[in-house]
Specification:
This protein is an alpha+beta fold and 194 residues long. The chain has a single domain, classed as Nuclear Transport Factor 2, Chain: A, CATH 3.10.450.240. Helix content is 23%, strand content 31%. Strands 1-3-4-7-8 form a 5-stranded antiparallel sheet. The protein has a 3-stranded antiparallel sheet with strand order 2-5-6. Strand 7 and strand 8 form a beta hairpin. It is globular, with a radius of gyration of 22 Å.
Length: 194
């Protein structure tokens, strides 16, 4: 199965455009041939439309939708409120309902998230474009090293449980709707370190 992987960095997390590195190789060997008098021709990048993976554009769109949902989720968790975010644009009712439940619990407890939980190495592990509603699955690694739960009442950081892994796997499913790819489920897999 062909997969697409993107590593996310915190500073370039939002709105980052993946960069392609063009590698130029040169052959060599002791075959007795003489070097050419003319310098080698400069390599020309392939047109943006050509790709070894015919699903590359859709995989990029899937990852971009997931990134956008994550960005809006991070904004909501920072204030324990979805107002002012665009979560509805990137998450279906089921996924959005889970986020809103988290936000309700946070409001009741008087907590917000400072810093952020980062997701790295997001990979499209399944993509079905032939289904009536195209579907995709992403696996990612959640990093809690910059994550802090903060009590707005006590004005103090709430430490994570000692058994909480700082890095763990997560899975998301997405569907392609008329407006674009939407996150339908997001499942942390805390028992699976990454």
């Amino acid at each position: 199965m062909v997969t697409t992987t993107r590593t996310r960095r915190t500073a370039a997390l939002y709105g980052a455009v993946p960069l392609a590195l063009l590698l130029a190789g040169c052959g060599g060997g002791d075959d007795g041939s003489k070097p050419s008098a003319a310098p080698p021709a400069a390599s020309t990048p392939a047109p943006a439309t050509s790709s070894a993976d015919p699903q590359a554009a859709e995989k990029t769109a899937v990852l971009a939708a997931f990134d956008a949902m994550w960005t809006e989720r991070t904004k909501a968790y920072a204030k324990a409120d979805a107002k002012g975010t665009r979560l509805e644009k990137y998450a279906t009712l089921d996924a959005l309902g889970r986020i809103r439940n988290d936000l309700d619990r946070m409001k009741a407890a008087g907590t917000v998230v400072r810093g952020e939980s980062r997701q790295e190495h997001a990979t499209v592990t399944a993509l079905d474009l032939t289904a009536k509603t195209p579907k995709a699955t992403i696996t990612t690694c959640v990093d809690l090293s910059a994550y802090e739960q903060y009590s707005t009442q006590k004005k103090a950081v709430i430490p994570l449980p000692t058994n909480q892994p700082m890095r763990y796997a997560a899975r998301a499913t997405l569907e392609k709707w008329p407006a674009g790819w939407m996150v339908t489920t997001y499942t942390p897999e805390g028992g699976h370190p990454c």
